[in-house]
Amino acid sequence: MLSLSLSLDDFKPITLGDRDLIKKHHKKYPPIHSDHLFTTMVSWMDYSDYHYAFLEDNLIIMTKVKGKTQFRSPSGKHKKEIFQQVLQLAKKEGSDPPFDFIDTETRAWLSKNYPKLEFSSHRDYFDYVYLASDLAELSGSKYSKIRNRLNKFKRNHVYTTEPISEKNFDEIREFLKRWCLWKDCDSDPLLENEKNAIMYSIEHYFDLALSGISFCINGAIESIAVFEHLNPNTAVVHYEKGSPDYDGIYKAINMETAKILQKNYTYINRQSDMGLPGLRKAKMSYHPHHMVEVFHVDKQNMIL
What we know:
Elements: E1 12-13, H1 19-28, H2 38-43, H3 45-48, E2 51-55, E3 58-65, E4 68-72, H4 80-93, E5 99-103, H5 104-113, E6 120-121, E7 127-131, H6 132-137, H7 144-156, E8 159-163, H8 169-183, H9 189-203, E9 211-217, E10 220-231, E11 234-242, H10 249-261, E12 267-269, H11 277-284, E13 290-292, E14 294-297
Parallel strand pairs: 4-5, 11-12
Antiparallel strand pairs: 1-2, 2-3, 3-4, 5-14, 6-14, 7-12, 7-13, 8-9, 9-10, 10-11
Helix pairs in contact: 8-9
């Protein structure tokens, strides 16, 4: 337990060894945004350099991206003395924005307790959340275009699915190597970091308690999906990857994943679009039930 005097020295890098500690906290205080999951943080360490500290019963996350230090809202019961410490440290570090990924409930609480704070929405990192039944059944006119592409795919290709397991790990690694060649991952910093995150999560698949399916055509893996529990009524799909040789394959893997998840979850969180126009269009085409909105406080608005 830390005293109520927070400094950078109180934070330590997130490692795989911190899994049980952070997952125990999240069982008590379930996250609603995918970026707060342990899997996300430990897999993206190379890019975001996640650090954490506990202040009483609150988990505090700090990131360092491209030399900028940023802080997340404390996870736990809202206590003004806890937020005061984090806000003051964020203000001292002075990155822009220094205080980020604030959900709507926390924003409302902060506005009440710190009326001078001003917030900006961070649309690029809103999570898309869908009804699992919508994605599994694709019923109604709003999904007609997706059904048409899916039906065309099914007419042209016979496929099978099976859970990701030790017996197909080698094939999955080979598929991901092919996917990176198709996408030319090393030519784009975001794709390169995504590749590193995916490979880390596959290498530690069982340690992270992940689930997933592989999608085979003509005896070869041509698509995969990896997912896990986010909170009691929501699963998160960390990623889906498919071969560009099969038009409609993403529609099929999306549906097959939803069929599995709807058995235990009401909602599926499919993460953010990171401001990428094509990805935003694709995610919107599936008609999200709601968005997990996040906000930040700009450097110039850190008035306590």
